[in-house]
Specification:
single chain; five-stranded antiparallel beta sheet; four-stranded antiparallel beta sheet; 11 strands; globular
Amino acid sequence: MRGRGLAVLWLALLWVFVSVAAAEAPVRTVVINEVELNPDGFDRDAEWVEILNVGATAVDLAGWALTYDYPIDGAAVISSASLVLRPGQRHVFRYEGLRLRNDDRIVLRLLDAAGAVIDETGPLRDVYDNGKTWQRIPDGGDPLLPLWLLRDGTKNAPNA
């Protein structure tokens, strides 16, 4: 009987832990899903970030930005005009006139129009011109277990 009581207690504690974790987990609507830090050839104007709407409602990306760190730290506006991303829709943003640092670990952040951080990558580094991209696995990611892998690019398509 004592063993059964301990099992019930453990299950109750597990339920409380999962409930608290779920309540504290932020509601994710738009995520950085894939990043090309080091494309074949010259990097300037060729590096990109895929953004994915994982939420249930459309989101207007007007005034939203993606950070960069080279040649200085800053943020590039995704769109100054209305750019609505429907649920499940992707948008590929290209860093025009810029190149990202790829020989040192960087973290890219997605900022809303008010400048609040909506999402960020893990520390990324890519020193090979080989067409591989950093991808959130599974596609769209798991909010409780962020996993980024360097794989063959899947630009504007689900991550493998």
